[in-house]
């Protein structure tokens, strides 16, 4: 880099080169080298030349404007502070739209890749509340037939005889959890009876109890 800066400095001090023109040329060269660094493997050599171009550009901008036209100097600094990150971002955006970028930059994984069997899980979850039939003896694992589809299932810990009507109540991994419909019906009946008993107790007249 030192040799490159010395050569550019010697060129700028020549009476045939305008320092202001060199500022523009070196900034454009630095922008081009940013793109080249991303697309061409160089082991960092292009990055070194890019940094050298911007440093040399700053040197000639200082020489041309700092003492005589300071507003140009500060405008140059502000412009470079915006141009460099904007160029890097733009180069990366362009890189992602090329076949080379697709090989170099890995795309983000999809939700299906992050959560295996996501579609199967959604399908099984949609069967909750459906009725089916036990295909074989469940001890407690086995097969059930739901909507004409054979599914791996597990009971709540009870043995279920073949051809017993079952209800899907949950999903556990890639299996559905089932229970006999009779058991769920009995639970519902017991719940209903408990509610009726509570309602009957609320309707008892306290004055009738005192009279008794």
From TrEMBL:
Domain of life of the organism encoding this protein: Bacteria
Membrane-spanning intervals of the chain: 22-40, 45-65, 71-95
Pfam families: NfeD (PF01957), NfeD_membrane (PF24961)
Topological type in the membrane: Multi-pass membrane protein
InterPro entries: Membrane_assoc_protease (IPR052165), NA-bd_OB-fold (IPR012340), NfeD-like_C (IPR002810), NfeD_membrane (IPR056739)
Predominant location category: membrane
Record's protein name: Membrane-bound serine protease (ClpP class)
Species of the source: Planctomicrobium piriforme
């Amino acid at each position: 880099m030192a040799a490159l800066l010395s050569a550019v400095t010697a060129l700028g001090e020549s009476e045939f080169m305008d320092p202001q023109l060199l500022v523009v040329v070196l900034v454009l060269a630095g922008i081009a080298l940013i793109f080249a660094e991303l697309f061409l493997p160089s082991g960092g050599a292009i990055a070194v030349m890019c940094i050298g171009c911007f440093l040399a550009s700053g040197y000639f901008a200082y020489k041309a404007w700092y003492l005589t036209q300071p507003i140009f100097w500060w405008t140059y600094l502000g412009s470079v502070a915006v141009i460099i990150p904007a160029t890097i971002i733009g180069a990366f955006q362009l890189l992602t739209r090329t076949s080379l970028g697709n090989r170099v930059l890995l795309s983000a994984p999809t939700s299906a890749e992050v959560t295996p069997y996501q579609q199967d899980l959604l399908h099984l979850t949609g069967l909750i509340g459906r009725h089916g039939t036990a295909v074989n003896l469940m001890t407690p694992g086995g097969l059930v037939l739901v909507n004409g589809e054979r599914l791996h299932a597990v009971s709540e810990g009870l043995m279920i005889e073949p051809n017993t009507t079952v209800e899907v109540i949950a999903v556990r991994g890639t299996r559905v959890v089932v229970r006999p419909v009779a058991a769920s019906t009995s639970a519902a009946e017991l719940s209903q009876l408990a509610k009726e008993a509570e309602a009957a107790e609320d309707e008892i007249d306290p004055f009738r109890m005192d009279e008794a």
